[in-house]
Amino acid sequence: MAKTDKTPLALTYEQAFSELESIVEAMENQQQPLDETMKLFERGQILSQHCTSLLDNAELRIKELNTSKSSLDKED
Amino acid sequence: MRQPSLFQITSLTVSDISRYLRELMDSDEILRDVWIRGEISNLSRPSSGHIYFTLKDPSSALKCVIWKMNAARLPLMLQSGMAIEAHGAISVYERDGQYQLYVDAVRMSGEGALYQEFMRLKARLEAEGLFDTARKRPLPEIPQRIGIVTSPTGAALQDMLNTLRRRYPLAEVLLASAPVQGDEAPDALVNSLKRLNALGSADVIILARGGGSLEDLWAFNDENVVRAVAASHAPVVTGVGHETDFTLSDFAADLRAPTPTAAAELCTPDRAELFESLASLSSRLGYALQAVTSQSAVDLMDLKHRLDNLSPLWLVRNDRQRLDELASRAELALHNELRMQHSQVKSLQTRLASLNPFAVLQRGYAIVSDSAGQVVSSVKTVKTSDQVTIQVSDGTIKSQVVAIKGGGTHGENG
């Protein structure tokens, strides 16, 4: 199980999503003791909310590599 | 032309004849709209922006000029020695008295030649294995950084950025812009691809260009560009031209998209789908918790039950119950016995009553007893003058024997 010690808010969407996935799978296998399950559930909820808010609030970031001959208007 | 006169030879000025020739040529259907093929020589590009060259074939030459306005729109970089087909009108340059071709469009000599070059290169690179399906890598499901190589000014870039904003705004775009047509395009495209790979952080690279003519897309058939696509560490998605356009870069790419927009779509998950899978994970999370806790509750109840069964209290209660059971059974048995006894007594009483000798007295019989109280059932037990007592139903009669008869066979009372 991909459990990181990072606080969920520091995770990227992909990291948070994949951890959420493995938490759900671990819980569905029911191999965990109850208090571990409760902890997993709480973390899963935080991860899920984190992912949702990332998706809701994301703004496409654009970084230009060749500033030398750029005629592009900066997007964001 | 006028007929020469005997008296006066009329002449035309050089300008007159030049203008005349020019008008003649300009009104000619063929000269006004013609494709001419040949090899470029004496190419010159003065600072004015116009381009001058001579088109040659083995036996003849034709002066050509491309005005600045048309020169800017050329799909390819003209070079001396290049075999091209030039389109335009033939007219007279009056100052030099020369006819020349005013070029407004240029193409490589024959689409056929271009196509053959394309096919030759394709066969060669294919033989090297550059296009093998085994080389194709899967795209990351959720890319963090998306490299884009395209023209900074083209509509293709805006289309792709709009698509990325709509579908997956979490991504970061690394834009390595490059001209996508003209002589400098191949080197610039290669350079951009290399720079993105050197940076190492792009999860996927989109190589794109909007629609255009075969020549417009030619940079994407350049051998170096194709090799750079194949050599890219990050998977490359091409979106060059329209759906019907195939370039060699498409063949070398890990995935070919029909358009730049489609390339951006193929590289990214859809936000709506992400929301859906999040919602599904979230509800699975809830169910899983519920399953675990309710299973725990069931386990707990089960254990509690088993514990209760093992409790000494339970044993005592068990015994007490058995005791109660036994007591009530005993009670029942006793009750039944009593009832039976009672009914037996009753029946005996009935039978006894029927045997009561006094009962017959009601019907008129009497019992005679002697003075000793012995029942007199035979004449032989009394003598004349004996006192006897006659008992009837409601009392006794004291009597004295007056006479005795009988002593025969029957001993009935008298």
Summarize the structure.
The complex is a heterodimer of chains A (76) and B (414). Chain A is mainly alpha-helical and 76 residues long. Chain A has helices at residues 13-28, 34-57, and one strand spanning 61-64.
Average predicted local confidence, pLDDT of chain A: 78
Query: Biggest interface and which pair forms it?
Result: A-B, 36 and 38 residues
CATH architecture of the largest domain in chain B: 3-Layer(aba) Sandwich
CATH homologous superfamily label of the largest domain in chain B: Response regulator
Q: What's the end-to-end separation of chain A, in Å?
A: 37 Å
Instruction: Say what oligomer this is.
Output: heterodimer
Outline the biggest β-sheet of chain B. Answer: 5 strands, mixed, barrel
The secondary-structure class of chain A comes to mainly alpha
Write the H/E string of chain A, N to C.
Answer: HHE
Radius of gyration of chain B, CA atoms, in whole angstroms = 67 Å
User: What amount of the residues of chain A lies in strands?
Assistant: 5-15%
Low-confidence region ranges of chain A: 67-76
The name CATH uses for the topology of the largest domain in chain B is: Rossmann fold
Determine and state the CATH class of the largest domain in chain B: Alpha Beta
Q: SS-based structural class of chain B?
A: alpha/beta
Helix content of chain B: 40-55%
Uncertain stretches of 5 or more adjacent residues of chain B: 410-414
What general outline of chain A do the C-alpha atoms trace?
elongated
Q: What is the strand tally of chain B?
A: 13
